[in-house]
Amino acid sequence: MALLSLVCLTSLLLVISPLLLSSYFPISEAQSSAPIVKGLSWTFYDSSCPDLETIVRKQLKKVFKEDIGQAAGLLRLHFHDCFVQGCEGSVLLDGSASGPSEQDAPPNLTLREQAFKIIDDLRARVHKKCGPVVSCSDITALTARDAVFLSGGPDYDIPLGRRDGLSFATINATLANLPPPFANATTILASLATKKFDATDVVALSGAHTIGISHCNSFTGRLYPTQDPTMDKTFANNLKGICPLANSPNTTDLDIRSPNKFDNKYYVNLMNRQGLFTSDQDLYTDKRTREIVKSFAVNETLFFEKFVSSMIKMSQLSVLTGTQGEIRANCSVRNSDNLYLKSVVEEVAASWSEF
Q1: Residue 53 assigned as binding residue
Q2: Has residue 1 been placed in a domain?
Q3: Do the domain assignments include residue 289?
Q4: Domain housing 91
Q5: Rounded to an integer, what distance in angstroms lies between the CA atom of residue 87 and that of residue 163?
Q6: Catalytic residue among 78, 80, 127, 215
Q7: Which residues are within 8 A (CB) of 171 and not within 5 positions of it... i.e. 6 or more apart?
Q8: Residue 81 annotated as binding?
Q9: Could you read off the pLDDT of 297-335 as tens digits, one per residue?
């Protein structure tokens, strides 16, 4: 009820002249034709698994009909996979005698358990239909794409052909590559610049926070002991009701206006000082990213275009292709842990390489 009142109280938004858009951030042609990493292809599974995308989307429609919240969980899983050591499914791996998995690193402790189950269920469905020719990393990328579309966002193609990694990153490497929610714009811009993302990419990818939830301890540093002056007071008071203590175990929506719909309201929130994380709100506070935030707030089509471009770019970070890595027969376990599975996968993969 409190959040509903908040939405009503803040419905009078800042009026922005459309001239702002054309003066600063002109609409350019779609970026989906950006360079593709060697080894990936728009038609990679056309012969080996032509029903792949249909299988994935059909099942996800059922999943999201029961719980639309899983869309945000799958999207976040793809981000956390790609940012650490590339889009090669290492975040899906369980730990081993060699050390804890990426899932044990603090930024990944709140990844949804169900998201991992959904990925491996899809892997089983796809492999039953086509054989073990589709990687878990490709399935993860497809679920992120469909999570966006099936929650109201743009539909788009992604290049496929990723192979699954054979190792997982250390906890320190995971921490170093996933900027925390209390990071400011300077930290985020610097971190993502190492992956060749510019300011527009950073703001566009941050728009993924238009769906999903957060635990209190990710943002209560902005409430206690003193309130962050960049946060709207009414918004802050409502958050204090949800999180009465800094370590409250509760959760709240990332986007107060349309929490389960993928749209541009996240940027409207920022303009009204209702961004949940420091890493969100500082994109509007910082001069380097403020005008980009404004442009996305007034033009959802522009946001969608730039988001798609940045997502395709992100989905190709340090991918493994060709004979690198493997096609896992179980997304949480390397094939080397099961020699029979390893031989079956290699035999099938070799047969398709002849085409």
Answers
A1: no
A2: no
A3: yes
A4: 51-212+254-337
A5: 9
A6: 80
A7: 100, 102, 104, 105, 106
A8: yes
A9: 999 999 999 999 999 999 999 999 999 999 999 999 999
Task: Confirm whether 318 is domain-assigned.
Answer: yes
Number of structural domains the chain divides into: 1
Peptide bond into 107 cis (omega under 30): no
Which has the higher per-residue pLDDT, 328 or 19? 328
Residue 145 to residue 326: CA distance in whole angstroms:
22
Q: Is 241 annotated as a binding residue?
A: no
Burial state string for 159-190 with b = 16 or more CB within 10 A and e = fewer than 16:
bbbbbbbbebbebeebbebbbebebebeebbe
pLDDT surpasses 50 at 284: yes
Q: Which amino acid is at 46?
A: D
Q: Is 127 a catalytic residue?
A: no
127 among annotated binding-site residues: no
Q: Provide the CATH number for the domain around residue 264.
A: 1.10.520.10
Give 160's DSSP letter. B
Please report the pLDDT score of residue 291 as a whole number.
98
Structure tokens given for 146: 């469909």
50 labeled part of a ligand binding site: no
pTM score above 0.70: yes
| pLDDT tens-digit series, residues 137-151 | 999 999 999 999 999
Average pLDDT over residues 99-105: 89
Beta bridge partners, 160, equal 41
Measure the CA–CA gap between 147 and 17, rounded to whole angstroms.
32
DSSP string across 317-335: TT-B-TTSSB--SBTTB-G
Check the annotation: does 102 bind a ligand: yes
Contact status, residue 21 vs residue 102, Cβ threshold 8 Å: no
**pLDDT for 337:** 76
Four-point Cα dihedral 281, 283, 286, 290, nearest 10: -110
How many angstroms from the chain centroid is the CA of residue 310?
11
